[in-house]
């Protein structure tokens, strides 16, 4: 089994599409104002957004995007005006992460985990 796609909700897809394009995702399906799908610069999975006008804060999601050059990515995104809720930190679970939110409050974690993503020392 392989993960194919993750879909999140948004009140305003035009704003969200612009945000995710700024992060570096490539738009491949444009069915605005109700749906959009992207590919990531690396890998085969896709990421999509569907419109949910009455979205509540409890509907928010956390999405992780991994990048081997996390420091460079965060620097470039800051240069583009992206605001982070936490800067790059080494976590106790052996990942390096930087946190931000999309325009709808969905939590985005940019990270680098290397071999620890699937094989941490405490793996069963």
TrEMBL record:
Q: Cross-referenced InterPro entries, in alphabetical order?
A: Glyas_Bleomycin-R_OHBP_Dase (IPR029068), Glyas_Fos-R_dOase_dom (IPR004360), VOC_core (IPR037523)
Record Gene3D superfamilies: 2,3-Dihydroxybiphenyl 1,2-Dioxygenase, domain 1
**Organism name:** Olleya marilimosa
Q: What is this protein called?
A: VOC family protein
One protein family per Pfam: Glyoxalase
Q: Which residues form a coiled coil?
A: none
Domain VOC, first and last residues per copy:
2-113
